[in-house]
Amino acid sequence: MRLIEPLLENYGPLLAATEAGAKRVALADNLAVGGTTVSKGVMGEAIRYAHEHQMSLDLVIAPRGGNTPYDDVEIKIMEADLLEAQQLGADGVILGALDANHRIDREALRPLVAAAGGMTMTFSTDWDAIRPQDRGGAIDWLATQGFERVLSAGDPADRLADWTATKRLTDSTGLTLVPADVAAADVAQVADALKVNFFLGTNSLDF
C-alpha cells in the first residue's frame, strides 16, 4: 500500500486531509520559504485533532526558512520547540542541520536529538545539499542517533538516479528513504523503480 503523507501549511487543511483519508500528515508554517515550526497553539490543536481522527502527525521543526547552518540561538529555539512537541504528544518530527561545508552539523543536532526522544525523527531535505562523497558517513551517523527516515527531493538533474543512490545508503543502515514532492501521476513509477511505498507531498491530498 502506497502512502502519501501530505505536508500541510498550518492547521486549516487538516479537515480536508481527514476527509481525503489521510493516515499520517506533516505540518509546517510558511511553506513558501521551505517550512517553519508552527506555533505552540497550532501544535496543540493539530495534535489533538489528528489523534481524535486516528491520524499520526509529524511536525517540521525549523526556526526560519532558508539554508542552514543555524546559529546557537536558532538551535535553542528548535530545542524548545521539540520539547514542546514532545510534551503535546506529537508522533514525529522533521528536522535537519548542516554546517557551512554542507556536512551534518553533529554538534547542533545532538541536543535536538535528545529533545526529540520518543518521537519518530525524519532528517529533512537538507540531505540533498550533502555532497555525495559525504553521504555515507552522514547516513551512518543519523542511524546511530535514532533517525528513522531520510527525506529527499532528489537532484533535479536526475532525481531517480539520486534517489537510487540514497536508497542504497538507507537500506544499508535500516533507515527509510522518503521521496518528496513527487507528482501524483509519477508516484507509481517512482514506487516501482525504488521499491518504496512512502512519499511526502506538499499539500498533496492524493491518497
UniProtKB/TrEMBL annotation:
It holds the Pfam family CutC. InterPro entries: CutC-like, CutC-like_dom_sf. Belongs to the CutC family. GO terms for molecular function: copper ion binding. This is Copper homeostasis protein cutC homolog.
